[in-house]
Amino acid sequence: MSTVDLDRWEIVIGLEVHTELSTRTKLFSSATNEFGGDTNTHIDALTLGLPGSLPVLNEQAVELAIRVGLALNCTVQRSVFARKNYFYPDQPTNYQISQFDLPINGEGWLELPDGSIAGIERAHLEEDTGKSTHIGGGGRIHDAEHSLVDLNRAGVPLLEIVGKPDLRSAEDAKAYVAELRSILVAVGASDGKMEEGSLRVDCNVSVRRRGEPAFGTRCEIKNINSLRAMGRAIEYEAARQVDLITSGERVVQQTRHW
Length: 258
Ligand code: ADP
Ligand code: MG
Known about the structure:
Blueprint: E1 9-20, H1 59-71, E2 81-85, E3 95-99, E4 108-111, E5 117-127, E6 131-135, E7 146-150, E8 157-163, H2 170-186, E9 199-209, E10 219-224, H3 227-246, E11 255-257
Parallel strand pairs: 10-11
Antiparallel strand pairs: 1-8, 1-9, 2-3, 4-5, 5-8, 6-7, 9-10
Helix pairs in contact: 2-3
The structure holds adenosine-5'-diphosphate and magnesium ion.
């Protein structure tokens, strides 16, 4: 794979950063929010999606979300939760409670160390999912013999911070995540531990010829958990897209793994 000729091409990046909030309990139940421990011990009826269990909103999660919103210059507003239906074994309720039309934090911005400004589209509250471990084959879902599900993480409060497509290089993106991470830690919202999954990044990448007014078609690379991996994923993806376009093909919008 070639590297991108930056005299002729511009890389456009928008990041979705998921951060687990440092609350004592889960977003909608009193099950403990704790990393590690034996599998399926930080759970209760609500985590398991048992009939009759009812969500009760965690006040501490709301407070932490608002602190982040204020630190990111967002419009903090009355918000509404919505159900996002999807079937997956690590989500036993078969829906994720998230925010859609009315996120708790509307538009804001973040100043990078070089003085440039990166826009924030929204920062909304939602539930984390459980964790699947695929056994057999290469440890990937495709060739696994069976899968195990740990629900300790299911229902942990997440804040999804959706950035505007304002970043223009892997270096920009790394500076953005590093700065965001410091802010999250400073306001006490997160422990910032990327290696424990407290901060996970979905990277949206597109390319366009210099001078082109419109954005190109983006691809999303999901669940990146280190700055180094993010930088490499952006450079790989940008080069892949430039190769496609220069060989007369089109970029197809899709979600990819690193
Ligand atoms: P989705 O649900 O498809 O992930 P979101 O609205 O949550 O959509 O996130 C879209 C993300 O993609 C934002 O971070 C935004 O900045 C980014 N984005 C949108 N258009 C482009 C583009 N053309 N190139 C790169 N990033 C983009
Ligand atoms: Mg998204």
